[in-house]
Amino acid sequence: MYKVYGDYLSGNCFKIKLMLHLLGVEYSWHAVDILKGETETPEFLAMNPNGKVPVLELEDGTYLWESNAILNFLADGSPFLPTEPRLRTQVLQWQFFEQYSHEPYVAVARFIQFYQKMPQDRLEEYKVCHKRGYKALRVMEKQLELTPYLVGDQCSIADIALYAYTHVADEGGFDLTPFPAIRAWLERVAALPGYIGMR
């Protein structure tokens, strides 16, 4: 059985939880409190020297880290990861987009507002996150006006990766009202068989 080391309120950890449920794969969850420094202990750093959640422990006792890498591992051979090279590359395209253009702004704004309760010294950073986060949402909206999922008609790990922080974007102060295609997509993902919420 897989073991997942993570924080239930982390979007990156939620990606893994959601993927496992959509695949119907059994696992055990081991809570890690990032605010208490539990990712910096020698025991945790032995699993992931980068000191971040999530970490997936495989049956042979080895570890995988980085949420999108874990998604690729879990989805291999399933409908959530296309085998056709062009489509598979488009999945990677959206995963890179999530890590470089979406997560650093949507997730960080949420961390500042939801976890840290808006400290004064991060207000300027919060404003920058909003500007760049809305840009990322507009990119998603354009695609989702054309296709029901980010890579065509089939839900893939590209959707799982971007769903995680988008569906709680309001906790970072983002208003999704101007994004009807994104809101419809969120509903489609939440209606998938096996879906489970973050909390």
Structure description:
With 199 residues, the chain is of the alpha+beta class. The chain has 2 domains: 2-75, Glutaredoxin; 85-190, Glutathione S-transferase Yfyf (Class Pi), Chain A, domain 2 (Up-down Bundle). Helices cover 51% and strands 8% of the residues. It has helices at 11-23, 42-47, 67-75, 85-115, 123-144, 157-166, 180-190, and strands at residues 2-6, 27-31, 55-57, 63-65. Strands 2-1-3-4 form a 4-stranded mixed beta sheet, covered by helices on one side. Strand 3 (55-57) and strand 4 (63-65) form a beta hairpin. Helix 4 packs antiparallel against helix 5 and helix 5 crosses helix 7 (180-190). The protein starts with a strand and ends in a 9-residue tail after the last helix. The mean pLDDT is 97.
Please write out the topology.
Blueprint lengths: L1 E5 L4 H13 L3 E5 L10 H6 L7 E3 L5 E3 L1 H9 L9 H31 L7 H22 L12 H10 L13 H11 L9
Parallel strand pairs: 1-2
Antiparallel strand pairs: 1-3, 3-4
CATH architecture of the largest domain, by name, is Up-down Bundle
Biggest beta sheet attributes:
4 strands, mixed
First-to-last CA distance? 22 Å
Overall spatial form: globular
Report the count of strand segments: 4
What fold name stands as the CATH topology of the largest domain? Glutathione S-transferase Yfyf (Class Pi), Chain A, domain 2
- Residue windows where pLDDT falls under 50 for at least 5 positions: none
Residue fraction in strands = 5-15%
Number of domains: 2
> Helical stretch count?
7
What value does the Rg take, in angstroms? 17 Å
**What is the typical, i.e. mean, pLDDT?**
97
